Amino acid sequence: MSDLPVGLIMGLTMGQRQAVTTHYRRASKADKGKILDELGATTGWHGNHSRKALARALRPAVVGRGGSPGQHRRPPPPRSSMRKSGPMTELVDLTAALACLEEPWSPRTVAVLNDYDIRVVKTKGEFTRHSHPETDEVFLVLRGSLTLRLDDGEITLGPGQLYVVPRGAQHQPVSTDGAEVVLIEPSATVNTGDTPSQLTAEPRRG
Question: Which residue ranges form the domains of the chain, and what is each CATH number?
Answer without folding.
Answer: 6-80 (no CATH), 94-186 (2.60.120.10)
